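Model: You mentioned two targets. I'll fold them one after the other.
Researcher: Yes, keep them separate.
Model: Target one:
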Amino acid sequence: MKKTTLLLGMGAMMLSFGQARAQETIPEGMEAITNASEIQLTTQDNLNRSKNEKPLVVLPNGSMIFSATTEATGEELFICKDDQVSIIKDIVEGSTGSDPKWMTVVGDKVFFATTTAEYGMELWITDGTEEGTMLVKDIYEGDLGSDLFGLTAFNGKCLFFAKDSDSELDAYIDTENGDKWLWISDGTEEGTARIANVTTREGIDGMSGYLVSTSKMVFFIGYDRQWNETLWITDGTSEGTKALKDIYPAPNTDGSEFETQAATIDWLTPIENEFNDKLVVFRANTLDNSGKNIGSEIWYSNGTAEGTQWVGVDYAAGEENGVPKNTEFAFPIQYGGKVYFRAKDGIHGCEPGVTDFTAEGTHYICDINYWSNDPIYDSWGPEYPYIWKGYMFCQANGSYYFPEDTYNDSGYCLWRYNMEEGGVTPTAENGLIGFQYQSNWTNGVEIFSGNNSDEARYFTPYNGRLYFRAQDVSNNHELWVLDGVDATPAKVADFSGDALPHSFTVTNDAFYFITTTTAVLYKYTTEPTTLRTPNAAANTLSIYPNPATDVININIAADLAYVEIFDLSGKCVLTQEGNRKTLNVSNLSTGIYMLRARTTDGDAFSAKLTK
């Protein structure tokens, strides 16, 4: 059933994008909200906040905002409200389009960058209506544009980097194009101001974006004229914006004005404040305690100079051709007071590791890809990790035995890890398993059998199940699901061609996604896995205080199995396992969230949380 409504003020139009591909196997409860012959979504297939210029975002009322193209309007900003899609505003009238980017929810509005002939690329804001969509400020006056990026919500305002005439004239990093300095905006022209003459390094790898927000401060990679590239923080004011310390104080030798060399920070990732008050982890160039360069290693910071520390172990020890080995630390994820990641330890290749921020507690877990030590094969796992019901699900390139005496390779595929193992390295004595390939819990069933890559990623929970994208033959990426941690993966839908679904979003009690090949928005609704009537003694759940500041109490009579908190984009931002009825939310940014809880009896509850 067609659900697209284009409110363009010019009557019905015939658009020439071609017909959507025929659908082969679409389950009951799934329907197309848009039609490829009328509108094509331009939302990007990328979870990385620093690389995805065109995300789909969700307002507090459940409406989704995204960029899309029609023949009449070009690429503009659209809204899906009550499953009806319409253009918000034809900012550049006619078929040219304004190329909206970096959509970011702040409160009940969306900040974004868009380009017009009059102003160039500048900061705009929308509340989802035409009259509520407007230019915030012409930061670089005239038609050149400020080329802003890195938009990030923090305490009801929007932080970002932008170029103006001052930063262009006083550039010391990008002297050819001009530096982009740190700005903040409350959505008004007078409330939009530059707060620091500091730029960042564009093109980072970390998934959390250029500005990593915590409850009290924002971390970012910045440049100090003395210390070169190092770790910075801001509280949204000029006085509260500063470099924390010289992370890599090796003497500079390139003849530039910097006294020391660049720290080359990456994978800057927030962790929960309850974990020893350490707020971010990252990798950076490192000198050991004797002043020797040991390459890129693992660091953490709580926002103070004293609390910004190397974990104390040379994880990737040794040299190669006279150059220190690097950890290639990436994809960190927190659980139970520890951070799990992938990294090279100099022995096993790039494999799973764990840290509790001590030297003793930072180590390799297991060798997923143990085919050979010469040469060393990397698993590059875990990639895209997601923790669900006490297990980490992820993508990895590995080796496994199934049956027990039969050795196989998996390709880049779905693996899991039981978080109860706590990062301990498996041995014959302790009986631990480590990371486990799908065939070992499905009695030999594989998504893409043989040494092939199913490329599992984008794990998203909905109604008691875990959805993800995977392929079972080459170039056939579709929507898949796990009904439980021990379930055999099942394909949900099989579109004609390679669907490449992305932008998984849970809102309004439904699951939405976009197909890359047809650029269509789909809606999928299912019944929860638990359909029985909840126990009468446990049929209510409440949380307080609400609005919350640091810790919330969960008032429910039944024992809890786990609690999850989702932001308005449908992303799970916090998980807590076990029957703990207090939850530290101090690391969450200001906004509206959905708390979902599952009891040990299997009953599901939800409550709205305001921070």
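Model: Target two:
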Amino acid sequence: MTGNVTAPSSYYPLMLDLRGKRCLVVGAGKAAAKRIRALKQAGAVVKVVAPEASGEALEMIADGEVEWEKRDYVQDDLEGQFLVLAMSDSPETNEGIEELCRRKGILVCSNSSQSSGDVIFPSVIRKGEITIAISTGGRSPALSRMIREELEAALDERVPLLCEVLGDARRELKGRGVKAAYEQWMGAMDGHFLKLLEEGKLREAEERLILSLSRPLGGRRSLLAWGLSHRTSPLSAIEALACDASSREELLRELKGRLESVVLLDTCNRFEIYCYGTVEELKEAMESVVFKRLPAREGPEIQPYLKADREAIRHILRVACGLDSMIPGESQIRSQLRKAARAADSVGALRNPLREVLQRIMSSARELCSEHKVQDPENSVMGAAVELLSSRLGDPRDKRVLIIGTGQAGLTAFHLLRKRGYGNLWLMGGDPDRLSYLSRRLGVETLHYDALKETLIRVDGVISASSRRGQLIGREELEPLLKKRSSSPLVIVDIAVPRDFPRDCSGLRGIVLLGIEDMENLHPVKDPQLEEMEKRLEEETERICTWWEERKSSPLAVLVRREALDFKEKTLEEIYSRLKLSDEERSFLEEKIELLLNRALHRPMQLVKATCGRLVQGEAVSDRR
């Protein structure tokens, strides 16, 4: 083997229609028999000239599939032929046939040691209307066969089905005068289309495809992220859109009717919608469902952002890592994003491909945060709220603090305050059973919302993070209570969305009312860990975006992976039913099986993508190696 680079093969791959074409084969040995069979399968009219024939050739001759003249070749045999195969045992005869064919303008495939003629026969894969040809330019038939066998094993049996639906849709679109670009085909083959295909609903799948491709190019489906955050809009606008559990479910159901797949992330400093759909669909959904929830006075002030595909992936990953939060690197946002995905899934609003991309983003975020040690609850909005309260109250030993809210935020506040030395703590909520459980578990005094007024007279500070809709108390009710207190002011840090205490209470004598907006400058020092995470985040973004582009370019690969994931879920269910595992053990097992699955699927998926890249154009694929 030399170090010289071989020049590319001069052969240009074509697909020939040989039906009814006259083809001559000179020679009938084993190699010639293979070509004779290939020509007959292509519908050619085959004539064989040879003094002797191999067993396989004789079988085809006996069946009447080919005409055989048992004699030596003569020049007149070339007359009227479309294609000639010079495959005799004589190199001189083959070279002479090749030279004569070229003079007469007849295509020739030669078995000569000097040349292969005008035509070579590639290794071929056929799946319904799909034909894949592999050639090494005549240099190594064994390598062509090896590649063919590997591709054939990886090529999914549903390829012909996909080709049938795409072909019918393409024919219909051409009849309507609609020309769809490659990118439009990729966007149209979304999760819903693939599900219809899997269920055998071919007509419905075709109709969906045609409807999607009839839109203008700008209307193709994308991964979209729309939102308001503390960086772009007043917190009052975010509060106006805030949801409790029931209103969130109602909103998701309304959005689900207008968008292919949607997730709603609603926190104390952001309101975001992640969806898979067209920009037009999202705008219509926002106008008819979301914006009507905003008071008219907020409309001109809000500055929503809209990001698509690559930028959407980068943004959601930054959100999941806490890098877009008011407290950079805060840890609670990942839990909030997981809950948002579960809420969408519970009403059937979370479907692929949005589900898959969110799973990858959350997996990357978990890895990045663990890698850079930003899991501390202190580094969260609630951590900042506790720090803000502590800075105003001073010595914690004799201070009494009320925590309003018995969810994750309230419990985080409880543990952080106790860690700082606060001993006199009360938890307040609305669910008697939950309060009773927390009282036993934490050894803390619990109170119902009904006891709020009398409790505000006794405590020094309040952290409020309830999930109730509407205020807990109004200014007119709070003012007389403050007069009954001692000389020390009541410090309230209200991070509920919407607020539990009205803003105008901050003007009352004897109260210090703080909120989210007071936390923005609480951690001005740059954290080297976060700076390093920003760099790694770009690498992860690129990796996920590469997967996203590949996913869009190979819908068939989605079907293959979906089957594998279904198998994984069934396997895990069997394991869980036999073994009693903790949540931590389950999480570890799921991660390892996912890793194993990805590694096992990597090579087959690459082959599927390589072979199906141009399927949507309705063309046979020819790849010369």
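Researcher: Noted. Anything on target two?
Model: The two ends are 18 Å apart (CA to CA).
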